[in-house]
Amino acid sequence: LPTKYRTGNGKKLTIIKASEHNLKNINVEFPLGLFIAITGVSGSGKSTLMTDILANALNQKFYRAKLAPGKHEAIIGWEHIDKVINIDQSPIGRTPRSNPATYTGAFTPIRELFASLPEAKIKGYKAGRFSFNVVGGRCEACSGDGMVKIEMQFLPNVYVECAVCHGQRYNKEALEIYYKDHRQDGAGKNIAAVLNMTVEEALDFFKNIPAIRQKLATLQEVGLGYIKLGQSATTLSGGEAQRVKLATELSRRATGKTLYILDEPTTGLHFDDIKRLLQVLNQLVDKGNTILIIEHNLDVIKSVDWIIDLGPEGGDQGGAIVAVGTPRQVAKNKKSYTGQYLKKVL
């Protein structure tokens, strides 16, 4: 439980006359610089307000998105934010070529580091030589996949390890370049061995390279020290993919004007994962950003700065604002279902 709630930066984002689906022409204020939760029973209009109206309108404004926002008159105060980022549990990449190292941007400085080694310079290798996606350094037998697809008639395709590179994805020339001396107790690693390291091992290995260390440290912070740098994105669970995205956001230089939108981020997460998630979200708010979540989990609701409770019921009986304020203020509201449950927890 937070001992005191943040007061924000004094600026606010206001939706005027939201009336999409079952919303009853409501004006909603979001104080910026806070951790805000939109609560209410199922069907009370939470997703309509946050996703259909706010997210779509801002995406249209900032990124020229095609999706039309839900019915509302205007949004005031959008100039106080500079970007909107939606963090969900969808996969970080659709192809096995995408991995945590490429997604967080740690792979670029790793490749540059290998290209800057004396041995690589003598041979004239550039950073592209250490990418498994382009011709040059990748194994051509499997096109840098590490696996070969065997198409079966009437049966699902079978993937077998590439017989040429043995799953290492690179050709012999690229694998001959080692960072640190590998002749002494095997301390050195080639690019394939680096991709096979866990985040925790890589943090120790690259502790003297700030550009790489900073990106990996955030993955460790969100509790992903156990995943491998080159692990295929398609093998990560929803909760893991969500945390990789959060780690990427954490490692960016904060402008303090970003709005993060999360729709029920704790779905399917263990209590310990929820604790970690909350720590990361609070770090983002401490940098001056605003976080807006839809949440049903009381452990999360009680620890936010500001609650907007919609209701009172679902469907036609919903779509109105029942309570607004800090968790303690909402807990005192007799009409709010969320407040009644918060009272027991607080």
Automatic annotation (TrEMBL):
It holds the Pfam family ABC_tran. Belongs to the ABC transporter superfamily. UvrA family. SMART domains: AAA. It is found in: Cytoplasm. It comes from Candidatus Falkowbacteria bacterium CG10_big_fil_rev_8_21_14_0_10_38_22. This is UvrABC system protein A. One of its GO terms (biological process) is DNA repair. Residues 5-343 form the ABC transporter domain. The keyword DNA repair applies.
